[in-house]
Amino acid sequence: MPKFEGEAPENIGKELAEADAQVPVHPRAEMVVVLAQQGVGRNEISRRTGISTASVSRIAAAHGIEFDGSQTEVALKARIAELKARQAGIALGLVEDITSARGLLRMATTHRDFAFAAKAIGDLTQAAQRMTPEISEQEEIEEAKDFLIDLRDTMRQVVDGFEAQHGVPFDSPEAAEIIKQEANQNDEP
Q: What is the residue extent of each domain of the chain?
């Protein structure tokens, strides 16, 4: 953890929690407040500022800011997906390297070059297998459920918006006629 001049980061949250509203706020505490208001998670704020997570929580609480666990979960899922995509990219790069090593194996003119290429192929193959992300059946099911829930929620928003805009139930004959008219207007040049 980086060293900071002046007060220790752990004391900032205590000072802020006990501070009167007229006392100026520590600049590092202000950074915490700004980041928290931007939706940055507690652990990320702690990492960026060097202030302990407990102090980040105290500072945020003193300003009436709460960290939303659901946002953290969404951010975590996105980060995991990003890391899996990077891991898959590395694995793909290793497969390309295997192809290059196979070319070297075919062009080897000495036993030493042949052995070197064969060893490289073996090592690269093992690395590629380790780097290929495994997706369990349970993860696939969860991903499909999340997709369907998001789709349902989006469809509900579309239906509610349509009904609010046109004042007719979405499953009525009037709604079908409105949709048909809008589709015809969009098809015309």
A: 9-62, 69-131, 137-187
Task: Give CA 188 to chain center in angstroms.
Answer: 41
How does pLDDT run across 63-122, given as a tens digit for each residue? Answer: 888 876 666 677 777 788 888 889 989 999 999 999 999 999 999 999 999 999 999 999
Distance CA 79, CA 58 (A): 26
Note the Cα 20 to chain centre separation in Å.
Answer: 38
Global pTM value = 0.40
**Tokens linked to 55:** 């102090």
Whose CA is closest to 56, among 22, 23, 26, 24?
26
Q: 3-50 pLDDT, tens per residue?
A: 444 555 555 555 555 544 444 567 778 888 888 888 788 888 888 888
Is 116 within 8 Å of 129 (Cβ atoms)? no
